[in-house]
Design a protein that fits this description.
278 residues; 13 helices; single chain; mainly alpha
Length: 278
């Protein structure tokens, strides 16, 4: 197929904008014993979970941008009450989710991994989302598709996946039983540990959730989902914690990158110096 040269386009391609500085350090992609996609890094004690080509990541970023910008609008004083009222009506919410599903599958549908190749967290988070939506009254097929799309974004963006895992690791499980308390703590942790432009996104989403959880039916659906999910699978494991020491902009476990790495060294882990950015 004939292709126009890049020089005719005004803006750089998404591939250029998100090119990873670590590409030269990547070793062959492997499939672990339990079917997970992982990447070897020379000198590292753990493999990196999952691997995404730049073109596929660019598509995921489009869907993520749609969600983030929608949250920004819905969390404003003008729209937050209408948003909650729309959530209160399962009929209206089903229609809204129809639109999200159409946008989502047209954007990233061809890039969704089979369940056996997803991270443990993504599979469990998908199940949690499905149970929450289905218990609330969303049609089963729609609940399944929305949960799959959200889990896909977690799989393709470890910056958000690891942040959510860190919150599940930091919020006591008994506190999770009280969603408003859990949200208050999650908001505080995000503000304390994250850079402003990212914590702002989390806080806006939490603002909507706080209003929504005042609705008993939503709270009950959340508690039902929480009862059925394995919370341990939503937390950071050693493999996650190891690579968190290379992440900028967030204090995982409340520690700086240097403190995380020192803690790992004390546990006997070795950290290669050649990695610039992950």
């Amino acid at each position: 197929m004939t292709r126009l040269p890049d020089s005719v386009f005004k803006y750089r391609t998404s591939k250029d904008l998100i090119r990873h500085e670590t590409d030269t350090f990547l070793k062959p992609i492997g499939i672990s014993i339990d079917g997970k996609i992982e990447v070897d890094i020379e000198g590292a004690d753990f493999r990196i979970k999952t691997f995404i080509e730049n073109e596929r990541l660019a598509k995921a970023n489009i869907l993520k941008a749609v969600i983030i910008e929608s949250i920004k609008i819905c969390s404003t004083k003008t729209f937050i009450i209408p948003t909650v009222l729309s959530i209160l009506s399962t009929k209206k919410l089903n229609k809204i989710l129809d639109s999200f599903i159409r946008i989502g599958y047209k954007t990233v549908g061809e890039n969704i991994f089979k369940d056996e190749h997803k991270t443990v967290f993504s599979n469990e988070f998908q199940f949690f989302m499905f149970m929450f939506l289905y218990s609330y009254g969303i049609e089963e097929e729609k609940a399944d598709k929305v949960a799959e799309l959200v889990a896909h974004l977690m799989e393709y963006d470890d910056a958000y996946r690891l942040r959510i895992q860190d919150l599940f690791s930091s919020i006591p499980e008994d506190t999770l039983q009280y969603p408003l308390k859990a949200l208050k703590l999650a908001s505080k942790l995000s503000l304390d540990r994250d850079v402003d432009f990212v914590s702002d996104k989390f806080v806006k989403a939490i603002r909507i959730a706080k209003y929504a959880f005042l609705i008993p039916k939503i709270k009950n659906a959340y508690l039902r989902a929480l009862k059925d999910v394995d919370v341990q699978k939503l937390k950071l494991d050693d493999q996650d914690i190891y690579w968190c020491a290379y992440k900028d902009g967030y204090k995982f476990q409340g520690l700086t990158k240097e403190e995380q790495k020192q803690k790992g060294i004390e546990m006997g882990w070795k950290y290669p110096e050649l990695i610039k950015r992950l």
